[in-house]
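#structure-requests
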Amino acid sequence: MEDEFKTVARFRDSMSAHILAGMLMENGIPAAVIGGNSVYTSLDFVDEVLVKVNAADEKAALDLIAANNAGQQD
């Protein structure tokens, strides 16, 4: 059975994940930030932070992320 949600990005910090999720939502793609809570932040042991979207929106999200990353490399 196909997953209902797909991971489109992984981060080590929640701020970057929330920025990406906000960009996706501003473009009509519902997104959620999962993870990132750890009591060991002083040891640089941070849970991976995931940005997830509905499976039906995965391609559009990945295309938007790729287009955004291409624009930042100029």
